Amino acid sequence: MVTNRLMWWGVARESVGELSLAAVELVTNACRETPLARVGFRAVLAPRAREITIAAWDGSPEMPKMDDSALTLEEIDALPDDHEFGGWGLRLVAGSAARVGTRSTEGGGKWVYAIYRPKFT
Ligand SMILES: Nc1ncnc2c1ncn2[C@@H]1O[C@H](COP(=O)(O)OP(=O)(O)O)[C@@H](O)[C@H]1O
Ligand SMILES: [Mg+2]
What we know:
Layout: H1 2-8, H2 13-33, E1 39-46, E2 51-58, H3 73-77, H4 88-96, E3 99-104, E4 110-116
Antiparallel strand pairs: 1-2, 2-4, 3-4
Helix pairs in contact: 1-2, 2-4
This protein binds adenosine-5'-diphosphate and magnesium ion.
C-alpha cells in the first residue's frame, strides 16, 4: 500500500525502498509496543516542501531509544551472552530521514515519525 502510494506521488524508485523500510520499521515497533493492538499509520505528502512524513502511532507511553546501535565493539564484547540486541531499525530510519521525532498524544500514546525529502521523478 505504501509503495503504491509513494509511486503515485512520483517518488523516485531509489527513494521508495527507503521510505517503505521506514514504514515497516515504525509499524513493526508500534505493533510490538502497543497495548490492545491499537496502531495508527500515516503517510503524508507536503508537496510544496517536497517532504513526506511516515508516522506510526501506538498506545504505549514509552519512548523509543537507540541505545545498542551506539555501542562500541568493546562494549558489545562485554555484554552477557543472553543480551537481546535491538535498536538498529530506528538508527537506519534516522540515518535515511531528514529528521525523526516523537509526539505524545492526549489520552496516552504517541506518534513516532520520520520526515523524508525523497527524490521525485
Ligand atoms: N513505538 C515505540 N514505543 C516504545 N518503544 C519503542 C518504540 N519503538 C522502538 N522502541 C524502543 O526502542 C528500541 C529501539 O527500536 P528499534 O531501533 O526499532 O530496534 P528493534 O526493533 O530492533 O528492537 C526498541 O528496542 C524499543 O525498546
Ligand atoms: Mg524495530
